[in-house]
């Protein structure tokens, strides 16, 4: 995983607050029940965000991110990927997230994302009119491919261009705008492949913006050493949402 259990988003909470937040169980289209976490905005804007974690699944970092989004007026729900293989509730000591990640499929993960989107659009979830996704690492490519599945925009931090290419062979089906936030010194997803997917998206006519953070490592969004990159990437996220929420 790229964010340890005690990591927190390295961004300041400004603006409003979450009016309500807590644990949630969602149901996918195949009947699978899976864990999630919601944060409702105090100052509602009609915008929602599905937060897609790294391979570690639903953790405190991503719950805190939901709170930060709610403080910006964005209804947020963070999901877990492993309801089918690990069930509900806290993970036991020694839980091997890589093993469970290997048992996921794009189809089942996308169905779980769809359940989260439907929750945000329901009265219980805020009745939002515009929905975005934001993903990290494993969740980055998952987020980007939602561009073909009815969202208003899709954001990915240090995601895999190769994984996007594999799960979406024809990039021309991606229609909602993408935001790619790239760590130049990422040892897992080489900068060359990030530049390649940027060029391929351009060739396919996909609306997108790629921002490369010079020298930044994988997971920079929680590193105090990369405060400037954290702040800039957060501004990019909020500006992206504002731009396409009113489009």
Question: Could you describe the 3D structure shown?
Answer:
By secondary structure, the chain is α/β, with parallel strands linked by helices. The protein has a single domain (18-245), classed as Rossmann fold, CATH 3.40.50. 34% of the residues lie in helices and 22% in strands. It contains 8 helices and 8 strands, in the order βββαβαααβαβαβαβα. Strand 3, helix 1 and strand 4 (74-79) form a beta-alpha-beta unit. Helix 6 (161-167) packs across helix 7 (191-204).
Gist?
Helices cover about 35% and strands about 20% of the residues. The protein is of the alpha/beta class. It has one domain: 3-Layer(aba) Sandwich (Rossmann fold).
